[in-house]
Each structure stands twice: as structure tokens, then as C-alpha cells.
Amino acid sequence: MTATHLILHQYDISPFSQKAQKMMGLKGLAWHSIEMPLIAPKPDVEALTGGYRGTPVLQCGADIYVDNWMIARALDHFDPTLPRLNRQGALQAAGGYAWSERFFMPLLQTAFATYKDQWDDDFRADRQQVFPDVDFNTLAVVDPERRSQVRAFVSAIAAQLTSSSDFLNGDYPDGWDVHVWGMCWMIHSALPDLIPVVNAFPAVANWYQQMSDLGVGERADVTIELAWSQLKQSQKAPLPDTPVDEPLRDWLGQQVVVGTGSADRGASAGRLLAVDGEQVVIASEPRQGVSAQVWFPRFGYALNLATQLSQ
User: Fold this and answer.
1) Are 103 and 180 in contact (CB under 8 A)?
2) Closest of 29, 38, 60, 90 to residue 226, by C-alpha
3) What is the pLDDT of residue 2?
4) So where are the chain's domains?
5) Which long-range CB contacts under 8 A does 119-123 form with residues at least 24 apart?
């Protein structure tokens, strides 16, 4: 049995990938990066997850964790020492995650308005498929109301820092800081016209720099071959218990499909292994005769029987 490595399947220009990298930095972890394509198809990641193709995806041996919500929980389990990403508890962690997702929308619209005419046809078509609710044709580059929304989010960060300490939940950074920092990273890396909005709040600018200085842990860039060898040679993590009063308990062992929300990042198909209030676990077969356990958040993902979708 070989040592189990942390592997992020990701690409660096994504703020969601940057969040996962910052989690590694906050916890001081060593990890491996495997770069996935920017647009579909993404055959390796889709094979690992059973169909999901979003970024990032964390692989720990034969266990595959989808979405930063699930990745944070996996990393806290992998390394339970402080600092913990979800040290404030499940409800607080969910609040920070959801708030940052709302913050993402005006930034996404600003990015589309700024760069859509510079993209080639394939990249633009992919992003239109991923975000079908965004009307690319009506987005204005200069939009005072959208800029006001961004300012409202940043002012809330400033207010929280004023009422706490160096970080959003006190003296130590946690998942709240990671999720919010990822959105500010998006501004600094890709939306220069919005940087003055952040810098207008000195507490936010200082906090952003503190978070940036934490780094990303110990990174090594590797090829997909490491993922396949880890998948084949590693033991799987213990499954959570499915509560007796879980409404979907009767679905255990059946073929299911796990779908994303409003953004189309692909749907995963597999046999349902476990479900509770925090996660869904399905079995996938990335390579013939080699299985994986794929973990999704219960929060924000829809679970359906495969037979229901085929009717």
C-alpha cells in the first residue's frame, strides 16, 4: 500500500480553485496539482467523478470530493489539527459558503461583460452552457448598480472585520476567510476596475493581504498518472451512517444521478452508498474494474434515481 496523497484536479485561473489552494495554505499541507482543461470535455475528471466536471475536485486515494464545501470537510478530517476550516460548526460554515456564492454573481457578470468579446467561440459557448441564466448579450461593461452590489459585499466584510479581530471569525482564519478571500482574489486577478472598491476599505485591503501571505502550502505539479495509481492502490474512507429516518434511505444501492444547481457543471451517475444531512456518497468506476467513492455536499446538489430521469 502506497502513501495517500492529496491531489487537486483544478486550473489556477478559477477563484474556486484558489479557495482550495488557500485551504491547503491555511492548514500548511503538502499537495499535488493536476491541471484539468478549462472547457469541456474533461474526460479524466468526469471519469473520476462519474460525470461532474467543475473545478476544483479533491482526490484522496480512492475518495473523490466535489465542491469546496466538501473539500473543506475532507481536509479537516485528513488533518484534524488546528486551524480547522469549519471550526465554527456546520451552520456557520454553510453561511459563509452561501454568502460567498452570492458575492460571486456580480463578479461573474463583470468578468463576462469585460472579457466576452475577447474569448474564442469555443470558450464563450462553454461558459454560456455552464451559466445558462446569464444573458451575455445584455451585460454592460460599466454598470453602476452592479458596482454598488460589489461595494455592498465589501462593506459587509469591513463591518465584520471591525467587530471581530484580524480575521472574519476572530484571531485565526477559517473557512469563512477562505471563501470570501477567493472572491477578492478574483477582483485583484481579473477585475482591475473593481480593485478601488476593495481598497476603499483599509481593513479589507489589509485582511486580503494577510490571507494572501498565508500561501498555498507545499505544491507539486504532477500528471494524471498519479491519480490513476492512487485510485488503484488506496483504501477507501469509511462511509458515514445513513440515518434510519433519512427520506432517501430506500435508495441505497440503487443507481442515482447527482446534479448541480443553476450552473451546469455536469451530473454524476453512480450507485448510492450513503446519504445524510451533510453529504451524498456514490460509487463510480473511473477505470474498468477500479472503483471510487465520490462525495458531494447535500447542500446545493440534487439527488435523483436514474430510473426517474430516464422515464
Assistant:
1) yes
2) 60
3) 57
4) 90-213
5) 122/39, 123/38, 123/39
The rounded distance, in Å, linking the Cα atoms of 136 and 171 is: 41
Q: What is the pLDDT of residue 134?
A: 85
**What pTM, to 2 d.p., does this model score?**
0.95
CB atoms under 10 Å from CB of 179, counted, come to 29
The whole-number pLDDT of residue 310 equals 60
Give the whole-angstrom CA distance, residue 123 versus residue 190.
17
Q: What are phi and psi of 94, to 5 degrees?
A: -65, -35
Per the listing, cell 463591518 goes with: 159
Give me the CATH topology for the region 90-213. Answer: Glutathione S-transferase Yfyf (Class Pi); Chain A, domain 2 (1.20.1050)
pLDDT recorded at residue 311 = 53
Q: Which residues of the chain carry a pLDDT beneath 70? A: 1-2, 164, 309-311
- The set of residues, in sequence order, having a beta carbon less than 8 Å from that of 112 and lying 6+ positions away, is 127, 131, 134, 136, 139
> How far is CA 69 from each of CA 10, 37, 183, 193, 243, rounded to the nearest angstrom?
15, 22, 15, 29, 21
Rounded to an integer, what is the distance from CA 255 to the centroid of its chain? 25
Place of cell 481593513: 203
Cell numbers 455552464 label which residue? 130
Under a CB-based contact definition with an 8 Å cutoff, are residues 10 and 17 in contact? yes
Concatenated DSSP letters for 159-217? HHHHHSSSBTTBSS--HHHHHHHHHHHHHHHH-GGGHHHHHTSHHHHHHHHHHHHT---
Compute CA 35 distance to the chain's CA centroid, rounded to the nearest angstrom. 15
Q: Radius of gyration over alpha carbons of the chain, in Å?
A: 20
Comparing CA positions, the residue from 92, 50, 93 lying closest to residue 75 is: 93
Given a contact cutoff of 8 angstroms between Cβ atoms, the answer to whether 216 and 36 are in contact is no
Question: Residue 296 and residue 264: Cα distance in Å, rounded?
Answer: 15
Q: Which helix (H) or strand (E) holds 283?
A: strand 279-287
